[in-house]
Amino acid sequence: MAFALNQEFVIIVEAAIGALFLARVLGMPEIRTRTFDRNRLGHWEISGFEVILLVLLIFLIGTIGQGIAQQFLGAWIKASPEKEARQLAVYGIALHGSGLLAWPLFWLGRRFLHNDYGAPPPPTALVRREPLTKVVVHGVSAFAIIMPVIVLCSAAWTFILQALGMPSDPQDLIAIFTRTQSKPLLVTMMFVACALVPINEELLFRGAIFRFCRQRFGRAAALLVSGVLFGALHGNWAGFLPLTVLGVGLAIAYQRTGDIRVSMIAHGLFNLNTLVIVLSGLPQT
Question: 3-state DSSP helix/strand/coil percent for the chain, to nearest 5?
Answer without folding.
Answer: 80, 0, 20
